[in-house]
């Protein structure tokens, strides 16, 4: 029982979100509407200098960063000067992504202005850049000049990714405001409904598979009009994954709370949780006949809340949501589970998603641990990503029904999904951690137009791939390719088989 879709929902069908390599003007309009909402209406202007994540720039930086990044790439592609004030390219070109353990270790980044521009000036600059983008479509150059098309593509995906990260930071702020035109969801009702639909989180056997990771993009303007790729999405390479078992769905908030109680780590709550200033807490929605029968657990849940853009809600109303936690937190959870349980590698996540897609297509019968799957059944075309990808269906997937792309501004329950293997985008609104260290893919080559994109994730620091889609997650176009991005972690969440996520993407 979700409350969506919201008036800010991004399209989820391939034909609607990736019909051409260059995002359409309509896609820009949807993105701008969402960006204006979160930066201008969901955070008060006088709170923009907050740093909800202390290792990040103030929120106001991103108000300048988004149009500046787009303008730099359009100026390069068109061979024309930067939009004024050109000094924005010095202040807002690149954010920061310091080492979590040693913040002194930080890649090259823009120097913040000593005196920040007035917000009105920054918003006027953004409008000027938006007009520059619109002009590319009015003149037809967006589609006739592939260099300009690539600049528009990277600017679009960059803004979408930052929409996600801005929201993640903003929801940590005490000054977050809900979207003014979206009614507060009935969280208590959703919780009661979710509690009544819980099923056992089954184990599924994932067969040995041959898969292709990434897709082809020589970053050439010759040849057919084909899809673009970030440096960490290319070039395609083949893998063979061994058979393994995976649980159907991510770890839930309630399960993570039980872990904290059992290990005595009750003061180590995830960043998305808050301790409520109440002695008895809110118990409405606390499911009975489940793990919360335990008195200590029930008391703990009653004393905590889960952050939302509507402010904290009782944790009892979120126990069926996916748990979002940092990589270290989820590693501890896995160790506590014992029995060799861990979260999956990047390739294993791809294998899970591929197998889930096959099951959903009815190509295989139900395969719990009690049944046998073909040892290397992979009906998908293993070479599909190696061609010049002019066909969006070859690299993007329909995400209908997934809680992504601002269908909602909150996670949705996952505990009813225990009988069916969750695939891409089916984690209730969370990204998915992997245990694979972020490192160059085979044939890795920095992007000609943005050579530093993956650079700071490849400097030997501890960083892990995260499979995107979910959370409040924004851009279906970027999310759709399971192998898409690699984020470095910093705060977030995960769950287990299928552990979830958080991410962070400071490009
Ligand atoms: Fe960025």
UniProtKB/TrEMBL annotation:
The keyword Transcription regulation does not apply. Transmembrane segments: none annotated. This is Sulfatase-modifying factor enzyme domain-containing protein. The keyword Iron applies. Residues 41-165 form the DinB-like domain. Residues 226-456 form the Sulfatase-modifying factor enzyme-like domain. Keywords: Iron, Oxidoreductase. Residues 366-383 have a biased composition (Low complexity). Pathway: Amino-acid biosynthesis; ergothioneine biosynthesis. InterPro entries: CTDL_fold, DinB-like, EgtD_Methyltrsf_superfamily, SUMF_dom, SUMF_sf. It comes from Apiospora rasikravindrae. Residues 357-392 are annotated as: Disordered.
